[in-house]
């Protein structure tokens, strides 16, 4: 049997009542109008109930979905906050570790200053001061952090209005060495075996020159001399000056090499014009 929706049944009944009353029968027509009005009111009420029933699952679904999305958003925010805190924490730890290393190095330098006030460093400084004074120069202190040779070179270049950064000097020195392997490889040996560096060891050495605080020496100075096309003069206390890149003309870059600097090993300083103010230990 075919099931007819109640609302459709009422609507059909109303239409049938309207069509079934003679136009000239005023009494029956009046009654019909009243009956139709009741049926239409009933029909409207049914429509409202059906709409409410349809909206209830939708509203419930929307509420559940909104609640679920809210939880997901909170989880994402918590995850982002945790990740941000982790990044900050790691960065803070790196800064603290770097600060601790710098402090330790400064403490070692201070201790070495006291121990060497009348020792090898003090005597070396006096000799260097005398050598430089004859040329109207004095030592310009460069921090002892592994970059001293490059920073001393950088300082000398600035006096000539040549502005190459520490990173640029390192990168260019490493690149020159890579492109002139035969000029540098024979002077590099493995400290454990005494054998000349392999190609892999040489490449690793160049990488360290370029991107680490690896200490620089005569090989790196020779590379820089060719890169800059300048002569480099290295003044020492107990030996004649070393001249690198003699084939280049012009005023040389002047560096000071110290064997006993800070009691921590070899070190390079820059030079500047002599003034009345002493630059050595008070």
From TrEMBL:
A single GO BP: proteolysis
Biological source species: Callorhinchus milii
Bias (Basic residues) ranges: 87-97
Enzyme Commission number: 3.4.19.12
Gene name as annotated: otud6b
This protein's UniProt keywords: Hydrolase, Protease, Thiol protease, Ubl conjugation pathway
Residues covered by region (Disordered): 78-107
CDD domains the record matches: OTU_OTUD6
Keyword Amino-acid biosynthesis attributed: no
Gene3D superfamilies reported for this sequence: 3.90.70.80
InterPro entries registered for this protein in UniProt: OTU_dom, OTU_OTUD6, Papain-like_cys_pep_sf, Peptidase_C85-like
Protein name (record): ubiquitinyl hydrolase 1
Highest taxon of the lineage: Eukaryota
């Amino acid at each position: 049997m075919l099931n007819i929706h109640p609302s459709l049944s009422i609507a059909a009944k109303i239409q049938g009542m309207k069509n079934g009353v003679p136009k000239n029968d005023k009494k029956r027509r009046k009654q019909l109008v009243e009956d139709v009005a009741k049926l239409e009111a009933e029909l409207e009420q049914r429509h409202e109930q059906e709409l409410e029933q349809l909206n209830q699952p939708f509203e419930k679904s929307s509420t559940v979905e909104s609640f679920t999305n809210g939880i997901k958003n909170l989880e994402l925010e918590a995850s982002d906050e945790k990740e941000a805190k982790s990044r900050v924490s790691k960065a803070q730890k790196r800064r603290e570790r770097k600060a601790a290393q710098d402090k330790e190095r400064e403490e070692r330098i201070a201790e070495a200053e006291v121990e060497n006030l009348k020792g090898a460093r003090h005597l070396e400084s006096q000799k260097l001061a005398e050598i430089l004074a004859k040329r109207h120069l004095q030592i310009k202190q460069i921090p002892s952090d592994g970059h001293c040779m490059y920073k001393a070179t950088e300082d000398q270049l600035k006096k000539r209005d040549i502005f190459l950064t520490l990173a640029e000097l390192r990168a260019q020195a490493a690149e020159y060495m890579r492109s002139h392997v035969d000029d540098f490889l024979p002077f590099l040996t493995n400290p454990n075996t005494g054998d000349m560096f392999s190609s892999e060891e040489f490449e690793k050495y160049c990488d360290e020159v370029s991107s680490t605080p690896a200490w620089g020496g005569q090989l790196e100075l020779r590379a820089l001399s060719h890169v800059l096309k300048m002569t480099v003069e290295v003044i020492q206390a107990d030996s004649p000056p070393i001249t690198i890149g003699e084939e280049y003309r012009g005023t040389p870059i002047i560096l000071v090499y110290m064997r006993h600097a800070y009691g921590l090993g070899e070190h390079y300083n820059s030079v500047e014009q002599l003034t009345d103010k002493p630059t050595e230990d008070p």
